Amino acid sequence: MKKTTLLSKETILQAHVFDIVKVSVRLPDGRERSYDLVDHADAVTILPVDAAGQVYFVSQYRIGAEAQLLEFPAGVMEKGEDALLSARRELREEIGMDCQNLRFIGGFYMAAGYSTEYMRCFLAQGLFAAPLKQDEDEFLSVCTKSLDETYAMVWNGQI
Question: In angstroms, rounded to a whole number, what is the distance separating the alpha carbons of residues 116 and 112?
Fold first, then answer.
């Protein structure tokens, strides 16, 4: 079976969190094609659940959606940062909590058709107060929902 072959990569834009890269490939049928790729740092997201079964969310305005979205705490990993340390840092920055137990539960590409960003997901339990200063460009509101409310929101397409 013939494969797609990478021919070249050229950075055409450098931005704050990502670069735009022109990628040229040879397709399995021999044709050559160029694609624009968002070269984005990897990220983490955390599902924080306290001892009472409350799930912690953050609400913030998202430019791409042009709306306020309810999300799990998440953030971009710093260059060379371990994913577990990144998840702990984001948890502390976004909801002001750390945890006794942090477990990796999986990962996925955010939009593999045009981006390199890989999201690692963690379950945080045994929460305790340990705030860090939020990023200066983040304006987050923290809220909690019961596990039942959270499941209902998933099944109803709200999150």
Answer: 6
